[in-house]
Write a structure and sequence with these properties.
The structure is a single chain. The chain has about 350 residues and is an alpha/beta fold. It has two domains: about 270 residues, Aldolase class I (TIM Barrel, Alpha-Beta Barrel), CATH 3.20.20; about 70 residues, Type Iii Antifreeze Protein Isoform Hplc 12 (Alpha-Beta Complex). Helix content is about 30%, strand content about 15%. The strands form three sheets. The protein has an eight-stranded parallel sheet. α1 packs parallel to α4, α1 runs parallel beside α10 and α9 packs parallel to α10. The radius of gyration is 30 Å and the shape is elongated.
Length: about 350
């Protein structure tokens, strides 16, 4: 791997650090900036590292056309044209400055996914500390070039992309000055079934492309995201809302605040649990060693009497010799008198 750590706003991201959690606000403001503020406040309280926006308008991301190619068939947004969907879902550009100011007040990092050059210009004016390339834009190599030229850390989602497309996007980013990159495994379904996530891909992305890897998760609970940490995800992105039944474009597959809190907690626990390769006793085990099985005298034995299954047994606690010596002992004669309840030691063999 070329870089095993990057930094966003001073927060280091990589295998040696707790997973970086991004709360994706996306369209869940539902047209109300105060709702956006509220989501940000909840994200901060939950322990998320960053809030992420999406910077586009219905005019910059598509065009007003009702031909069949521009209509959505099936799924959450069935029947809408792309123009209609994004008109209702977009984050008004005049909101960006107050949202950035709110993030500063809350002391939480904020950045965005730009969808065209003018969005990058706006975010540069606001001094965004990083950029995210959305899955649908991974094939927009000129946009990736423009973002890379800012010199800021970049995060890319790979939903729908094949290996060659991912390779091209990474190469363009690197060729244009991006030195800090995280590539997120993603399934662009809304919601996405956990069984289609193929989380083993996360480690392969890191090895194959020499980048940090993570997960953009569109499943409806936290199991997939937490599991991804054990498979190498150093960054997790999840959509967040105040109310999954709020009726917004992305509400139905987003986490509510208490679920985001649980994700932040469980992801860090999973990361801590990975630890290192270790075959030594841990601190938590040391006190319990005495309760392992060992060989004990379970019936009084006289000097010269043979050891038998009736008077020597493997039981708890562990102050006698190891049970592996049992067959060596049985049939031998005792060198001394032994009392019931006495731990058996190898020196008692004649």
């Amino acid at each position: 791997m070329k870089n095993n750590v990057i930094s966003i706003n001073g927060r280091k991201i990589g295998p040696e650090y707790p997973p970086y959690i991004i709360a994706e606000l996306s369209a869940n403001h539902n047209g109300d900036i105060n709702r956006a503020f509220q989501i940000m406040e909840e994200a901060k309280k939950s322990g998320a590292d960053a809030i992420k926006l999406q910077t586009y308008t219905h005019e910059t991301i598509t065009m007003d056309c009702d031909s069949e190619e521009f209509k959505i068939r099936g799924g959450l947004w069935d029947g809408q044209t792309l123009y209609e969907l994004y008109k209702g879902a977009h984050m008004p550009w005049e909101w960006h400055k107050p949202l950035f100011e709110k993030a500063k007040e809350l002391n939480i990092t904020i950045f965005s996914s730009p969808f065209d050059f003018t969005a990058v210009d706006l975010l540069e004016e606001l001094d965004a500390p990083a950029y995210k390339i959305a899955s649908f834009e991974l094939v927009d190599l000129p946009l990736i070039k423009r973002v890379a030229q800012t010199g800021k850390p970049m995060i890319m989602s790979t939903g729908m992309a094949n290996e060659e497309e991912i390779k091209e996007a990474i190469q363009v980013a690197r060729d244009n000055g991006c030195k800090e990159l995280v590539v997120l495994h993603c399934v662009s379904g809304y919601p996405a079934p956990a069984e289609q996530y193929n989380l083993k891909t996360i480690a392969d992305i890191s090895e194959r492309f020499g980048v940090l890897s993570g997960l953009s998760d569109h499943t409806i609970d936290n199991a997939t995201a937490v599991a991804s940490v054990v498979l190498g995800a150093c960054l997790i992105e999840k959509h967040v809302t105040m109310d999954r039944n709020g009726g917004g474009a992305d509400d139905s597959f987003s986490l509510e605040p208490h679920e985001l809190t649980q994700l932040c907690k469980d992801a860090k626990t999973a990361w801590k649990a990975m630890g290192k390769i270790n075959y030594e006793r841990t601190e938590a085990e040391i006190g319990n060693v005495k309760f392992r099985r060992s060989l004990y005298v379970v019936k009084d034995i006289k000097e010269g009497e043979a050891y038998t299954p009736e008077n020597i047994k493997s039981i708890r606690p562990g102050f006698g010799c190891a049970p592996k010596h049992y067959e060596l002992i049985i049939g031998k004669k005792s060198m001394l008198n032994l009392k019931k309840g006495q731990p058996f030691l190898l020196k008692y063999i004649e």
